[in-house]
Amino acid sequence: MSAGFKETRTVDQVLNEAIKYVRHRPGVVEVPISEALYRYLAEDVVARFDVPGFNRSAVDGYAVRSIDTFGASPTNPITLRVIGFMAVGDEPGKFALNPGEAVEISTGAALPINADAVVMYEDTRRSGDYVEVLRPVPPMGNVSRRGEDVRAGEVMFRRGMRLLPWDLGVLASMGVYRVRVYSLRVAIISTGNELVEVTDVPQEGPPPGRVINSSRFVIEGLVKSLGFDPVYLGIVGDDIDRIAKTVEDAIKGYDAVITTGGISVGRVDYTIKAVMKLNP
Asked: CA 135, 83, 111: angle at the middle one, nearest 5?
């Protein structure tokens, strides 16, 4: 008599045992980042340029020469002449500061030529074409420096890394549109005479003794969430030879095979028996 489920092992034990027999190397495909979510990188991704590619304001306020703000205080403000406004998207060469000048600036805008700091609106008083600076700002104060997020030549993503939603944004900011990822096609085989496809179920429900094959959708979703490609091969009835042939063909044509049903010790639990018939 079979020991059945009296002898059990943990998931980790089973995985460690199975890994010993894995010799297959998955294929590699190049995909746009819009299709790379949850997939595993097949090679390192190196930054081609700095991000940001220029010094930019981290706050809304006034771009200044930091030396011009030295000694500023609410009781002893320093007055600078405002010569213009820098918006996001404007080129740095739009303005060049001379001593005693400032440029109003938006968060994210490039610093004008000669500016090396930004004074926040909260630390100023505006009057017409002039602004009073109430607090000093150090060199590069309130500035996001060039290369602060990504440095040219830096390995930003390592081979084998799984790409998550925010990673796609970083890749796009680096100018990377396509990546090479591992391609793993996973065959899904459902077994059991009782199964019926959801598309074949009449309005009143499945016939007595039949159940809808719902687990295939769970498995397909899990496989997709791991970044792999599920391929559903359909339902195979309770027939040892048919199950064995279907599994054998799937092993030859796919990177991995998942079966459902027939793994207990009942009279019609044929999947384990069918797999045992295959050549090692």
From this structure: 65
Question: Please, is 243 exposed, middle or buried when counting C-beta atoms within 10 Å of its C-beta (0-12, 13-18, 19+)?
Answer: buried
CA separation for the pair 137, 120 (Å, rounded): 9
4-26+184-276 CATH pick, 3.40.980.10, 3.30.70.120, 3.30.70.2190, 3.10.129.10: 3.40.980.10
Q: pLDDT in tens for each of the 280 residues of the chain?
A: 455 556 778 989 888 888 887 777 788 999 999 999 999 999 999 999 999 999 999 999 999 999 999 999 999 999 999 999 999 999 999 999 999 999 999 999 999 999 999 999 999 999 999 999 999 999 999 999 999 999 999 999 999 999 999 999 999 999 999 999 999 999 999 998 999 999 999 889 998 999 999 999 999 999 999 889 999 999 999 889 999 999 999 999 999 999 998 776 667 777 888 888 886 5
DSSP assignment of 136-181 = ---TTTTEEPTTSSB-TT-EEE-TTPBP-HHHHHHHHHTT--EEEE
